[in-house]
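Working notes for the structural subgroup meeting. M.R. asked for a predicted model of this chain before we commit to crystallization trials. I am recording the input and output together here so anyone reviewing the notebook later can reproduce the run.

Input as submitted:
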Amino acid sequence: VTGAFSGYAWSDNIGWISFNASQLSNCPLGSCAPIVDWSAGSLSGWARACAGTATGNCSTSASRTDGWDGWIQLDGVTVDKTTGVFSGYAWGSDVVGWVDFSGVLATNPPVPANLTAGSVAFGSFTIGQSVTLSSLINNEAGTSDVTVSFNNLFQLADDTSGTNKQDIGWSTVNSLVSGDSQNVSVTYTFTAPGTYFVRACADKSTSDADNGVIDEGSNEGDNCSAWRSITASCGTGNFWYPVTNTCVLLPTISLEVEPGTIRAGNTADVNINTTSIYVLTCTMYGANSSPTNLAFNPTNGKFTPTVPITTRTLSSTQTLLLSCTINGTSETITTEGRVEVIGNAQEL
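Returned structure, recorded in token form:
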């Protein structure tokens, strides 16, 4: 919708009044063409009583020689952006005076643009690695085209209520016609593990509370997408170490059973191998009738009690389980071992 006027109006007093831009050159001041600015709800430019032209029919821009030129300035006239109802007065100089626009109605006023943001999309990532957050910005079909650029905001929060909400970036769309959409994106780097929530807001640049640069009328309240959860982690084989606030390599741990196969009624020795550089608190299950608690000191590389651990006498094959927690974290690593037990030899 351009907002441009065209055609004529009739007055019983001054005859035909032209609103055709082609007949309105050389106006007294500013831009001549009559225009409705639907975003502002105002008129600008000029109309002209053709009787004020030299020919009396608007076929020339030259004015009459008696001092009346027929120009009518439209500034001061407003229009309701929703109903299309005009109000206010245009000024037609001393001859015409004030021209009342209160009876004028635009039968099909343009529907304001309605800009919305789709759910934020993202790929796989780990802590310390930038992730691209994207959203599809849409201008609802049947609304006005957006012909100027506008920004689109991305936000991060602690929950779906927007607790501790913060702006993390914005991306610009240069224009967006009615019924069309455009993908926008920003990059962000998570620096700590956890579940966060992200969303995008169309036509915002610093806060979701502002109305942006595009006049959307009553549609201003639906610019933001729903909050979507996003989980930041260290990735496979790593864990978050709060002492250094970094992702570090997860240590390995294994059980070594000697001998691996015994006869019923015998015992086996269980050794523990680990690459840990952290204090470990461990529990071994299956070696004895009750769990065996152990601690690993990375300074001397030894377990307490010392290993190997001797199993109880076994009468059947036994699976051993070792579970270790890295001190100061909730990170647990586990491993299994197995003692094969065979029957005793019988004398023939």
